[in-house]
Amino acid sequence: RPPPPPTMHHSRAAAARALALAALCVPLLAQDAAQPDAQASPASAVKPVSSAPHAELLTRAKALGAGATWIPYGRSRQGRELFALRIAGAAQKADELPAILVVANVDGTQPWTSALALQHAEQLVARAAEPTVSALLDTTCIYVVPCANPDAHERRFAAVQHEREATGPGVDNDRDGRSGEDPASDVNGDGRITQLRVRDPRGEWIADPLDARALVKADKTKGERGVWRVWTEGRDLDRDERVAEDEPLDACVNRNFPAEWKELGPESGAFPTDEPETLALCEFVLQRPQIALVVTYGAFDNLVEKPKSVAADALQKRVPQAGVVEADAVLLAEYGKRYAELTGVKHKGRGGDAGSWQTWAYAHRGLWSLAINPWDIPLDTPEKSAEPKSEAKAEDGAAAPAKPEKDPKEKKDKREPSEDAKRLRWIDANADESWRFAPWQAFEHPELGACEIGGFAPFARNEPPAARSAELAAAQFEFLLTLGADLPRVRIEEFTAKALGGDLHELRARVVNPSRLPLQNASALRTEAVRPARLDLELGAGASLVAGERLHLIRALEGSGGRFEARWLVRAASLAELRLKLSTQHAGSDTRVAELAR
Question: Between 540 and 212, where is the model more confident?
């Protein structure tokens, strides 16, 4: 197992950048940012950020006490408690504030992200008096779900480590009339399930020519012939010459959400929300309409790499096209730039997002959904030079001979190392990280005979090195602090009355959204999953409406100054009888009494 990371170090430079960004979005934050953060927590007060079993996460979450409201919201398939934490400046007003939901480890194979999300909650509570944190909590409610898939999460801490998402009912994968008879297993007894390869002319894999430890698929168009058949480490108990091909569990929590659900896929489950964890998380969100934005830590990403986008009319088709509407994708790209500036993370996501939580939150629930893959083994480690660099001058003082120019054709034909070879390059350059790859070792398999076992260790790509985990966690936290300022927050900017003679008045109102995000994104407008803003004209006992609609429903209101205007004619003896009320589920509320127009 990887060693635990050291004490977290708060990045002052990142904090300064976060303050600057927040100041551009909300005047309240700008006012706080003008003063130095005199109450910043010392680095020594920050606890280490390391993967922890679910029971330890529970204990730490409950230890937050009154600073965070404990919300149990269900049980996993194996009976583990699903819980969330609610953190706000004034708990009694939390349900009235726009909210951000932070969810970690829906995949179950990302245990470090659970520790990361819980650390966010601990930091919000511990640093609530700091200007930037208090400004966020006074205007925004934060929900944190540290571990959305505890059953798969626990495999990280089992006696035999196995990185696998599936926790739900299995199917007969090899269609031999039996189910679950060939599970993965620790054949060589080293405490972890890696990979097994066998030399076979029917194989599809060859060793990477630039690093024989890595495997790449043979490219027949280039005359390459497969050498290896590769499986997850295990037995061939049914003697069908396939290894670990029929696990007892197949359904995955993060493939069981309704959006783009894949029917008949073994990992999809019997039907959408069949997995208890999936259903519980959906219900948690549906019961809290004040949630406006979701941040998910896991294997997927839509910030480092721009998500697939579709035209606005794609959602109007009978069968809507999958993807993020272009207008929303443009805003996500802006978040990607901010994320890159504050965190420096360059790791793209892994796998498709069909049936995932992140896709459901956007496509069905109409929420802004930021998917973050906080760490992966870097691919940019420079290759070690085989020859020493030439000196600027020869030994006799004369100018060194010019290097021969490389043939352009040679450069074009040069083979690029595979991504696994690049990951191995990083492991080689960091001696403390050798645990991440098990060298291939010859093994006499009970059914297959001579084979080799090795490859990347479980969770090797999911947990950052101990020396960097604190820095990464601090950067992610600073990014989170900037998001509250962007949530849609509507308000009544003007409500005036112009006397027309007698007790007749013309009323004018202007509603604005000064925040960056629009009142509803394109997906929410299509699904109508988010209620529009409601503008009510309230008349006193002595007032009457002559013209205009007493109730306006505002469905679309752009960000960064979007506005909606309304007019009425009323008869009222006193302006005090005229009140305008603005209410929303996720963007705040406002009330104004009519003022005489100047």
Answer: 212
Q: What is the total residue count of the chain?
A: 598
Backbone angles phi, psi at 189, to 5 degrees: 70, 30
Helix (H, G, I), strand (E, B) or coil at 106: coil
C-alpha distances (whole Å) from 268 to each of 251, 285, 302, 408, 590 are 5, 21, 22, 48, 44
Instruction: Decide if 285 contacts 291 (C-beta within 8 A).
Output: yes
Average pLDDT (187-200) is 96
Q: Which helix (H) or strand (E) holds 526?
A: helix 522-527
pLDDT tier at 406, thresholds 50, 70, 90: low
Q: What tokens does 330 get?
A: 């443009």
Specify the pLDDT at position 405: 62
- Written as six digits, the tokens of 402 are 């010019």
> Which of 235, 271, 233 has its CA nearest to residue 251?
271
Locate 163 and state its tokens. Answer: 């990185």
Mean pLDDT lowest for which of 173-187, 332-346, 361-375?
173-187
Q: Which two tokens stand for residue 174?
A: 């090899």
pLDDT tens digit string along 200-223? 999 999 999 999 999 999 999 989
- The three-state secondary structure class of 252 is coil
Q: DSSP letters of 362-421? A: HHTT--EEEEE------S-PPPPPSSPPPPSB-TTSSBPPPPPPPPHHHHHHPPPPPHHH
- pTM for the model stands at 0.87
Q: Are 494 and 524 in contact (CB under 8 A)?
A: no
Radius of gyration of the chain (CA): 29
Extract the tokens encoding 73.
């919201």
Q: Which two tokens stand for residue 420?
A: 């696994």
What pLDDT is recorded for position 60?
A: 95
